[in-house]
Every structure is written in C-alpha cells, then in structure tokens.
Design goal:
Mean pLDDT: 79
Number of strands: 14
Shape: elongated
Strand order of the largest sheet: 11-6-1-2-3-12
Structural class: alpha+beta
Helix content: 40-55%
Radius of gyration: 30 Å
C-alpha cells in the first residue's frame, strides 16, 4: 500500500521546468512531475483543439479561405484563442504547484512563473489583435446590415458644400424610390480629408450605427445564377487634385459555370453617354452649360459652327435646345457630379459610384452587381503587399508621375521592354503615364496590370497578407459588396480560369459614333453592346481580331 502511494505521488522535480513544459504542451509538466492521470486530464482539451484544426485544414485552401472572411467565424476563433490561453496558463500554474510545496516556493520562483505566463500570452495576444483587426476591417470595408431606423428627413444643408468648394454647380434630380433601411456613412462626402467638413461633423446625427453582422442572403438572390459582374474603378484623388475623378473604369464579368473572365475598359473622355430612364432628365441644366462651353467658331464668323441660318436672313440662328438625355461631360466626371446624391440613392454606400454603375450598365447593356473603387495610394500599397506584379512591358519607360499621397515620393519607373516585376509606385507610373502615348494605350496597360495582379495573387499570398490588405482597403477602398458575400467570392476566385481572361478596350475609333464639337469621342452604343456580348459568348477568341491578348508578349 505504501509503495502504491509512493508510486502515485508526484516526483520531486523543478517547478519552473514543469511549468515551462505545460506551457508548451499542457499536461507535459504534470507528466514530468510523475502524475500521468493528472497529465491526461490537463491534456484532454487538446483533443478538441486538434480535431478543430484537422476539420479546418481538411477543407482545403478555398474552404479555409471561405471561413476566414466570415466575421462570425473569426469571432469564434477569438473566443477559442482566449479559452486556449486560459487553459495553457492554468496548465502551467498547476504544474508549478504540483511540483512544489508551500514552504519551498520562493518570491523569485513566483516572479519567474509570472514572467513565463506573460511570455506565454504574447503570441496569443498578437493573434487576438490580428483577428480583431481583421474583423474590424471586414465590417468597415464591406457592407453590413443595419437596424431599421426612422427616415432622417431631407438631406443635410451641408451636402452641397463640397461641390461649391470645387466650383461646381449641382442640379441633382431626386427620383421617388422605395423606403430603404439607411443611407451609408461610407459615401465620399463623409470621408475625412476629402468630403465636406460640415457633413462629416453631422454624420453622427444623420446616420444610425451599422450592425457588424449582415443577415445571410442566398447567393442566387444576390447575383444571377450564371454570371457575376463588378465595376472596377480607379480614383485619382491625391496631392494637388481637387476631389476625385474616376480615371480608370473597367467592367469585369465572370462566368460562374466555366470560370472565364472578361474585362472591358471604358475611356474616361467619352461624352454624351446615354442615361438610364431613372436618370434621363438629371443633367439637363448641366448639358446646357456644357454645350455652351464646347461651342466652336472655326470659320471665325462670330457665330458658333453649329448654328445655321433657318429664316433666310443670312445670320446663323441658335438651334432650339433638345436634350440628348445623356451625360454631357466626360465619363470620369459622373462621380464628381453625383457623389452627394443621397436622396436619389438613399440606400447606397456611395451615390456617385451607384450612379456610375447604373450609367455604365445601361451603356453596355449588362447588369452590374457591385462596384469597387480603389484610390491611387491603395493601389500602390496593395501591389507592394502582394510582392509586386510581373508585367510584360512592350516599350521602354523612364518616366515619373505625381505622388499618390501627401508626403510620399513621386511614382517613377525605369524599365526596358520584356518581363518586369513592378513595385507599387512603378506600377502606378506605368499605368498613369500618357505623355507621348495616349489615354487608350494607358487604359490597355491598366487592364494588363489588373490581369497580372489577379493571376499572381494566389490564395496563400492573400491569406498571408489579408490583415494588411484589409487595412489598405479600410483607407482607400469604397465598395457595396456585402460582407456575407465574401465566402462566395473566395469560392468563385478558386474556380477562375486565369488562362481564360479576355481584355477589351472599348476605345475610338472602333467604338465611337463621332465627335463632339470639342472633339471628344461619342460612344457607339450598339457596337459596344455587340462586342460585350460577343466576348461573353465566345470568350478570349473574340477579344481581338487574332484572338491574342493585348497583355501577352509578341509571338516569335
């Protein structure tokens, strides 16, 4: 009997060694102390942990990605992380107590134990911060639901203030729309450093807080069953620029059955783009001002060239005004004219992008599900975060463009023809330079960089850099993609055929129907729509006359 008690009693071991062992593997310190039964009890939660890890990793890269973009799952991970930390601390303290007696415990030993517990907590506290930041970024960048709130009433008198500061006169047409839950505080009019200070100050009184969890909406209820289409926009906000223009506009559409992708680029200088019905009378006053501004007098007779003599008095007469029911100015100015239309688009994250989406959707006759805008600084930081982008450069570039943000260096590039790995600033210079080139060549370079980044940003890279990418998105991205759609997007990304990405520039002269008096291209709507449908139906073979990509190296 005495031998059994002696065998079952803890062996005399160093308490701190036991505490360290249980800190590394809960239960190991108890086993070291000679108490296997206690060790088994302390170790038992590890079975649940290992089972969870196995279940998680067994889902594969795409399955894990689907979970890691869900705030609910990440919240559960944070709770599990806290529970594991408590378990490890308890195991370490228990091992220390088992291997020491009350009289043998010293102040130095206790201090060392506390230091060990502090070291034990560091990696898990870092993991907790990492997870909390990811949850915050997901809920900030992407759209979540909000509780039903009362109608906030008419728009704040401060809304037009930013437009006035730009020297622009706005005449928005407010259309009757159904009641919606809320308007969004992520509209650019409320953006620090860019929007109207009065509107920013009034934000808390205008908007209710956003709920961090969006309700589940079935995938097929969000987008069509066979296709997902997103408007990708590049904003040019930066030092020395007034406001923001959408200088890069591409429509990306994905066949959900085949994984084929098509990207259509729109010139920023298109004028007289037709408007959808609900906006057809929204820019009449603006159209009158633009027409007057763009009048020319090439024959120098003192009358605009578009005026003709209609009554036989040999004096040119001003024609009656008939609205084109179009946006009269350059396409990249739609955003600046509509970004504060919170009455017309009360349920949108950003009214300006919603208006641009609707107009582009009407122009190309394709339903656009979501919009996604990134500012120049965000583009630079994203490219750097994923390790640069490999692009085939067709011509030598030794150029410099303005800095993407205040206090940062200018973007410059020095490359020769061939494959080049471009940093963020180099990619910005490459996609923005147009002196000695053209807007349309620049558009092609933009599409090629987007295509290369999408192709090269593998799932492992995205997972490794997700918190950093989300931090950039918090600062530089505006989108209406709902947070509960992200798992679907991850799954879709995993099915894409990166060898089947068609890129098409809908540029003059092929896709223009003429020129305005000020020599701006007017879109050939029917030809644009035909090309979009041709590429959607026939894939990359329809992207050019030869079927080759504008982004590929020349054939030997």
């Amino acid at each position: 009997m005495g031998q059994m008690e002696e065998r079952g009693s803890p062996m005399r071991r160093h308490p701190l060694v036991a505490a360290l062992l249980s800190a590394l593997i809960p239960g190991a310190g108890q086993l070291y102390a000679g108490d296997p039964y206690r060790a088994a009890i302390v170790f038992s939660p590890a079975i649940l942990v290992l089972t969870g890890v196995y279940s998680f990793t067994a889902r594969g890269t795409i399955g894990m990605g689907e979970l890691l973009v869900q705030p609910e799952f990440l919240t559960g991970l944070l709770a599990g992380n806290a529970a594991i930390l408590v378990w490890r601390i308890a195991a370490s303290v228990d091992a220390y107590l088992v291997t020491s007696n009350k009289d043998g415990r010293t102040l130095g030993g206790v201090i060392t134990l506390l230091a060990l517990i502090g070291l034990l907590a560091i990696p898990q506290v870092i993991g907790w911060v990492y997870g909390a930041q990811t949850i915050s970024a997901l809920n900030t960048v992407f759209v979540a639901s909000s509780p039903q709130i009362e109608d906030p009433g008419p728009p704040s008198p401060a809304e037009p203030a930013y437009a006035a500061s730009l020297g622009l006169v706005r005449h928005p047409v407010f259309v009757d729309l159904p009641d919606f839950d809320k308007t969004s505080p992520r509209n650019m009019v409320f953006r620090e450093g860019l929007g109207d200070p009065d509107a920013i100050a009034a934000l808390g009184d205008i908007y209710a807080p956003v709920s961090p969890i969006a309700p589940f909406v079935a995938f097929e209820e969000r987008v069509s069953a066979d296709r997902l289409t997103i408007l990708l926009v590049g904003g040019d906000a930066g030092p020395g620029r007034e406001g923001l223009r959408t200088d890069s506009m591409n429509v990306v559409t994905i066949d959900l059955d085949t994984g084929a992708v098509a990207m259509f680029g729109l010139p920023r200088n298109l004028k007289e783009v037709p408007l959808p019905r609900h906006l057809s009378r929204s820019f009449v006053s603006y159209e009158q001002r633009v027409r007057e501004r763009d009048l020319t007098d090439a024959d120098d007779d003192g009358y605009p060239d578009t005026w003709v003599d209609t009554n036989g008095d040999e004096i040119p007469d001003e024609p009656p005004f008939v609205s084109c029911r179009c946006f009269p100015d350059m396409l990249n100015k739609i955003y600046r004219e509509t970004f504060d239309w919170t009455k017309t688009y009360p349920n949108e994250v950003d009214p300006g992008l919603a208006a641009l989406r609707d107009i582009v959707s009407h122009l190309l006759d394709i339903e656009i599900d979501y919009y996604f805008m990134v500012e120049m600084a965000g583009f630079v930081r994203t490219i750097d975060t994923i390790g640069g982008v490999d692009v085939y450069v067709k011509d030598p570039y030794h150029v410099m463009v303005s800095s993407p943000e205040e206090g940062q260096p200018k973007a410059k590039i020095n490359v020769e023809p061939g494959m080049n790995t471009l940093s963020g600033l180099e990619a910005l210079a490459y996609t923005r330079w147009r002196i000695g080139s053209s807007d349309y060549n620049r558009m092609g370079r933009q599409r090629c960089v987007i295509k290369a980044a999408a192709t090269q940003a593998d799932a492992l890279t995205i997972a490794r850099t997700l918190p950093e990418l989300l931090d950039h998105m918090k600062r530089y991205v505006t989108t209406d993609i709902p947070v509960n759609f992200l798992p679907d997007l991850v799954r879709i990304a995993g099915t894409l055929d990166y060898d089947d990405i068609a890129t098409v520039g809908l540029v003059p002269p092929t896709y223009s129907a003429g020129r305005t008096p000020a020599n701006f291209p007017i879109p050939n709507v029917s030809r644009m729509r035909w090309k979009v449908q041709d590429v959607i139906e026939n894939g990359i073979v329809a992207q050019s006359k030869t079927g080759g990509s504008e982004c590929d190296p020349p054939q030997e």
